[in-house]
Amino acid sequence: MTANRRGRLRIPKIPVRTVVIHAIAWGIGLLWLFPFLGVFMTSIRPVTEILNGWWVTNPFNPTLQNFQTAFTDPTTPMWRGLRNSFIVAIPSTFLPIFIASLGAYGFARFRFPMRDYLFLAIVLFMAIPQQMVAIPIFVTMINAGLWDTFLGVILVHTAWALPWILLFMRNFFQTLPLEVEEAARVDGASDFRIFYKIVLPMSLPALAAVAVLQFMWVWNDFFFAKVLLFSSQNLVATQLVPLLSEAGPFHKDQGILSAASIVVMIVPIIVFATMQRYYIRGMIGWTIKG
To answer: Which residues are within 8 A (CB) of 45 and not within 5 positions of it... i.e. 6 or more apart?
Structure first.
């Protein structure tokens, strides 16, 4: 608001285009929330109350029984799946970030023969679908004795993430000023010390954005986990969700399935909400210069 010469408050006029854009954005946001509302309502109600649809609220007797059943299942408890998912997701997030950041800094700052062609070849690996390499990875892990182990899944996720993180971080490093690094090099700092002490602290927004994306990818992964993990003790959360809903050979308990789904999705939501500020800064920064 601004005041005119007579002291009256004048409300600024909002362009119609801005109003339309905000209305469309809010409408899309509500449409995205609508399925989640259905899953949530199904998770907190007995099965008998949702037979006619979750939107029918008469009767409405909310309960946490579905969540309790999901966590205390005698054969596939959800707490075990969450533990296994953390065991896989945390190393699978930090290992590729560290390795790819080193490589990305080399591609961004140093010149060597065939550099651009090598970078292009690495980035092209992003186009390979998971289904194409499933059998070779499966056979390799069996021969290496890493099938049905957390280490095998971590190594696969780490290797799979290297190309896109390399592209992401290389583009971000190219936006950083060279003057700071050159001043440190004049003072006698080594390349690794410059990378560790100067470049990485300046790249925290990009690192946070990469960490959020990679963690969410690994946490929500079902394909590689299905191929590489078999024992009930090693199943991750995404594998346990369909198993928990099996109430019989011809029946799926939708309440337990919805409760388990919410438990699985709440973790990446918390991670994204915590890192949102850095995530947005990093996503903006890496697209400035490609």
So the answer is: 54, 60, 61, 62, 63, 255
